[in-house]
Amino acid sequence: MDTKPLTVDGFLYTVPAPGDGPGTARFQLVVSPTDDAVDDVVWSCITSNPRIAYALLTEIQSGDLLYVSGFLTRLDNPAEPALLTVDDLEVLAPAPARALQEMVLDRYGEYVVVFDADTEAVPVFTAHGQWVGTAESPDAIGTLIEIHERVNGDG
User: What does the alpha-carbon distance between residue 6 and residue 107 come to, in Å, rounded to a whole number?
Assistant: First the structure.
């Protein structure tokens, strides 16, 4: 068995799962040693740091770019994958689609609206992506669509 310290950045590949004991977690990390996707490697990772395990299980999502430090253990059997025991973790960047999780898209016939829990304002687009405007509240969506159709013809 060979163990060496390692610091690397990679993307969280799967949803983290609780580990075998309290305050532990298991996850997989996609590491790209080059810019070529062919060289990507998926590493199995574990942590017994309760703070990191809590963050993995409650805050961090698949696709987040992580910077991790720990010890890489390669077993004597080459058929078995290496295991990275993580002692330190930092989120470098959230997954690109993460912001959409707090938003809801809805259709109004030929129109698409975006509801955001953080604001009353509702952006409105045509189904083809043309900007219509921003309704001041959900109650004003119908009025905005009617005005757009009167000025531009039916949606």
Answer: 48
Burial of 152 per CB tally in 10 Å (0-12, 13-18, 19+):
exposed
Write out the two tokens for 137.
């509240």
Taken in order 50, 53, 59, 63, is the CA torsion positive or negative? positive
- What would the 3-class secondary structure string for 43-108 be? EEEEECCHHHHHHHHHCCCCCCEEEEEEEEEECCCCCCCCEEEEEEEEEEECCHHHHHHHEEEEEE
Q: Give the type of residue at 126.
A: T
- The neighbour count for residue 133, using CB atoms within 10 Å, is 15
pTM assigned to the model: 0.60
Residue range 116-125, pLDDT digits in tens: 877 888 988 8
